């Protein structure tokens, strides 16, 4: 271009305008989506795309920690000089236990009476816990309860049961959690499927997978050994069980984990951490027929006692009572009650 031509100035002006338009468009887009009306555009988009279970809704009686502390602090300072009334704060600690997904799944499998694969697979899949609540994601250990399938299992399902799976470019799930089956979604997830529908579809996928792979009895069963043949103290706190197929048991419990080797290692870590007795062979069990079987006994794992047998780590909490008291009249009146759990604070 000649230095005497105005074209150079036009090109520079157009380039400047083009850059300014891009910056303005990006600024308007960011403001419209993230700032205007507190990001209502993003909220509407999420509500249209994400399933119901991806949204956190506090309970009607749930309060924040700051609000509870403010109420308790005001109660401690409260004095009614005319009536002689004061407020006292009483705290009562309590402790419960979470459900251990490993123990719960193992107990469900052992408790099924039938060895028909069509029956025991359906009963097992229908009864086991699948997903931890969103607020207790910290309790997920070794992928138990992440509500997804291992990569090798999902690949098998895509090859042999393509009608049950579908590819999707959308990442459906919670920002701080694993995506729903990673990038693989079940049918109708994009169409506002409910948590119950998601749960049912995952169970159907698991049934189809295991029924296609298994044609035999359960990989574990309660031991029929007489308690008199065992150590007296051990017999009072646990019921032994026999594992006949280690890898199959690992696949049935840790199906959220990819590769059979890793599932087997996870099973070994749980069994070794919790067992207090393991007898190799089958010489003490009258019903055993394979020398490759192995007998285990986990602490406080008792046949017929699902509540105690499936208990996991402690969940500590407290009940905070604010009592209006008049020492002169000897009267007491319950003013407010807060229930504090590891996940929320509620008023009663």
Secondary-structure map:
Layout: H1 7-35, H2 40-49, E1 62-63, H3 65-77, E2 79-80, E3 85-99, H4 101-111, H5 117-127, H6 151-160, E4 166-167, E5 184-185, H7 195-213, E6 220-222, H8 232-237, E7 241-243, H9 246-253, H10 260-274, E8 275-280, E9 294-298, H11 306-309, E10 311-326, E11 331-340, E12 345-347
Antiparallel strand pairs: 1-12, 2-3, 3-10, 4-5, 6-7, 7-9, 8-9, 10-11, 11-12
Structural class of the helices, strands and pairings?
alpha+beta
Main sheet characteristics: 6 strands, antiparallel
Uncertain spans? 167-192, 227-235, 276-289
Shape: flat
Give me the count of strands: 12
**Helical residues, percent:** 25-40%
If helices are DSSP runs of H or I spanning 4 or more residues, what is the number of helices? Answer: 11
- What is the terminal separation in angstroms? 81 Å
Instruction: Give the DSSP E fraction (strand runs of 2 or more residues).
Output: 15-25%
The Cα radius of gyration reads 30 Å
Strand arrangement, major sheet: 1-12-11-10-3-2
Order of helices and strands: HHEHEEHHHEEHEHEHHEEHEEE
Mean pLDDT: 79
Provide key terms for this protein.
11 helices; alpha+beta; flat; 348 residues
Structure description:
The strands form three sheets. A six-stranded antiparallel sheet has the order 1-12-11-10-3-2. It is an alpha+beta fold and 348 residues long. 22% of the residues are buried. The model is unreliable at 167-192, 227-235 and 276-289 (pLDDT under 50). The protein has eleven helices and twelve strands.
């Amino acid at each position: 271009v000649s230095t005497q031509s105005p074209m150079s100035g036009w090109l520079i002006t157009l380039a400047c305008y083009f850059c300014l338009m891009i910056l303005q468009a990006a600024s308007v887009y960011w403001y419209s989506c993230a700032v205007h009306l507190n990001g209502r555009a993003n909220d509407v988009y999420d509500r249209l795309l994400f399933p119901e279970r991806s949204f956190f809704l506090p309970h009607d009686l749930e309060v924040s920690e700051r609000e509870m502390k403010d109420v308790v602090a005001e109660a401690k300072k409260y004095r009614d000089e005319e009536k002689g009334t004061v407020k006292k704060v009483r705290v009562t600690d309590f402790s419960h236990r979470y459900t251990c997904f490993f123990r719960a799944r193992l107990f469900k499998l052992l408790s099924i009476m039938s060895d028909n694969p069509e029956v025991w697979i359906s009963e097992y899949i229908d009864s086991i816990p699948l997903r931890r609540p969103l607020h207790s994601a910290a309790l997920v250990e070794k992928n138990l309860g992440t509500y997804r399938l291992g990569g090798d299992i999902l690949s098998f399902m895509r090859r042999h049961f393509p009608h049950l799976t579908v590819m999707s470019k959308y990442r459906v799930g919670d920002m701080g959690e694993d995506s729903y089956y990673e990038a693989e979604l079940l049918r109708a997830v994009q169409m506002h499927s409910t948590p119950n529908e998601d749960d049912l579809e995952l169970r159907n996928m698991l049934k189809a997978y295991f029924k296609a792979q298994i044609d035999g009895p359960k990989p574990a069963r309660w031991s029929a050994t007489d308690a008199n043949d065992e150590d007296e103290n051990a017999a009072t706190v646990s019921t032994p069980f026999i594992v006949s197929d280690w890898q199959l048991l690992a696949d049935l419990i840790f199906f959220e984990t990819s590769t059979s080797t890793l599932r087997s290692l996870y099973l070994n870590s749980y069994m070794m951490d919790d067992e207090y007795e393991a007898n190799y062979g089958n010489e003490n069990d009258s019903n055993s027929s394979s020398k490759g079987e192995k007998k285990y006994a986990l602490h406080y794992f008792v046949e017929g006692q699902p509540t105690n047998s499936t208990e996991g780590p402690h969940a500590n909490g407290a009940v905070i009572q604010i009592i209006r008291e008049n020492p002169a009249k000897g009267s007491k009146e319950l003013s407010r009650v807060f229930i504090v759990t590891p996940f929320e604070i509620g008023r009663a």
